[in-house]
């Protein structure tokens, strides 16, 4: 069964952001009728974005902006993959929900990848994907951000344990459907949260 390989570069991923390994998760890839899905699809897409050849996109430029970083400076230091393990379909289906099989495989793949690469923080920029991630040890909500003038909806978060490593996961909205100012503030707040406990590398 086809499965996209994650975008991850070593040793830049180990250096990470603020000394922490960061994982970014979207929901799905879509493709044009002339494109073929492949295991390298995610790596190709991120590479095209870094080179400025991806075209109009509402995801990658916004995400790096929340971290105040340029394209290569950001994506070369994080791991990225979508929750669905293969493409949702052609572009006309880009807003669709994955099949039961894709969701099942996506949940198992998520746990396998975070167990293998042990990020400190996982930013899930998809409400659909967040609800399907799988068992979470605890689920809480972030504080409302009152300094922005507008009330910011609480973000969900929880932890996963993989051996002696604690992974903190945060559920956020897709950039297309949320205020950039609010998401940028949420990312800053998340990066300031102390890790659940000392992490053994």
SSE pattern: HEEHHHEEHEHEEEH
- Oligomeric state of the chains? single chain
Based on Cα principal axes, name the global outline: globular
In spatial order, strands of the major sheet run 3-1-5-8-7-6
- Tally of DSSP β-strands: 8
Query: On the 0-100 scale, what is the average pLDDT?
Result: 83
Largest sheet, strands/sense/barrel: 6 strands, mixed
Number of domain units: 1
CATH fold category name: Uracil-DNA Glycosylase, subunit E
Classify the beta-strand content into a percent band.
15-25%
Question: For this structure, what is the CATH class?
Answer: Alpha Beta
Rg calc: 16 Å
* Alpha carbon gap, first and last residue: 32 Å
Structural class: alpha/beta
Q: What's the helix count?
A: 7
Helix content: 25-40%
Low-confidence stretches: 145-152
């Amino acid at each position: 069964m086809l499965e996209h390989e994650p975008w991850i570069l070593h040793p830049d991923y180990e250096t990470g952001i603020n000394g922490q390994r960061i994982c970014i998760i979207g929901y799905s890839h879509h493709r044009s009728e002339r494109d073929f899905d492949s295991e390298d699809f995610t790596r190709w897409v991120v590479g095209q974005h870094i080179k400025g050849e991806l075209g109009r996109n509402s995801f990658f430029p916004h995400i790096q902006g929340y971290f105040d970083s340029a394209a290569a400076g950001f994506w070369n230091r994080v791991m990225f993959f979508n929750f669905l393990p293969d493409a949702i379909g052609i572009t006309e289906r880009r807003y669709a929900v994955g099949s039961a099989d894709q969701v099942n495989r996506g949940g198992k793949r998520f746990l396998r990848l975070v167990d293998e690469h042990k990020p400190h923080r996982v930013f899930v920029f998809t409400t659909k994907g967040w609800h399907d991630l799988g068992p979470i040890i605890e689920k809480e909500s972030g504080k409302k951000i009152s300094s922005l003038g507008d009330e910011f909806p609480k973000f969900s978060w929880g932890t996963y344990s993989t051996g002696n490593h604690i992974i903190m996961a945060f559920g956020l909205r897709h950039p297309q459907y949320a205020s950039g100012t609010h998401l940028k503030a949420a990312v800053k707040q998340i990066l300031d949260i102390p890790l659940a406990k000392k992490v053994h590398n």
